[in-house]
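seq:
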Amino acid sequence: MHRLLAASLLVTGVFAAHADVFTFSFTSTIDPSNPFNVAGTVAGTIVLPHNGFHVAASKILVSSYPAAMDSYAPPPLEPTAWPDQPGSMNMFTIVKGNLIAGQFFRALDTPDYDVDFRINYDNRGNGSNYLGFFDPTWTRDWIEARGTPGFGGINIQEAEDAVGAVPEPSSVVLLASIVGIGGFVLLGRRGRLGSS
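struct:
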């Protein structure tokens, strides 16, 4: 029975699905026409649970951004944990492990600051890559990091798989079938041994 269980776990491991993890970054440069823009790089990770079109990221973590923004909130930020608001967007396309398109927008309002994070999204069709902080009391200036627009304006790289294996439903059925068959075989052997 132990051999059967070990073999079924091995087979299930072969069919296990993994979430795809990508790193992202976009770089903001000083723009003389925009006094609120700061220079630096915004970077983090995107976790997508499976391949497909219109796949929602299960986690986006903004792990670093220009130091001038730290006075509002030090990193990391997790925009996927912020509540949905009208206009929120979380949609990516991943084909054969390649992240080929996507849009994300989420904002968070707190008593101390409001924050807005975007990947290839704005309401004017420009595809902003953007992180901005705003002080609702107007005691500090708005500060933002704005990268090159569009999905092509963000650097996306496949990261090491940081999420554990999750068995696919078919793997669970396969495991249950193998264990069930093994149980019937063992019961049959015990019945024959007991009758002799």
